[in-house]
Write a structure and sequence with these properties.
single chain, about 140 residues, mainly alpha, 5 helices, about 40% helix
Length: about 140
Amino acid sequence: KYGTIERGRPLNKIGAHAGNEVNNDSIGICLTGNFVSQEPEIEQIEALLSLISYLEDQYGKPLKVLRHRDVFQTVCPGNKFPWPLPGIDTEEDWKRNLVLRALEEKLIIENHDPDDKADKWFVLAVSLNLIDRILEL
């Protein structure tokens, strides 16, 4: 609380924060508070953003940041928790950016909801567009 960062398990140890399928290749970050009933303090958000930035520097790449509820059946962190976090790519951002890039590269011809299932015809159309783009080079 109040923006203090405390270390739990070492980074080289598997956590117990979100179930076996997620724990093996992720880092759990916990903020103290009940964000169903109150918003986190600004110092907490600033410390969280600082910690994410530090971890991205340590790993040399942007991290995919998810909430507990994105990987486990829970309301955590609560609706009072600000989401998406400012300046942090979320899974939703990544998906939207992928669709926008596919539009720019003319792999698709219209915008799509990134969570829609892709039918075989769609995959084939994208593949043919990709082949056309390669042949243009």
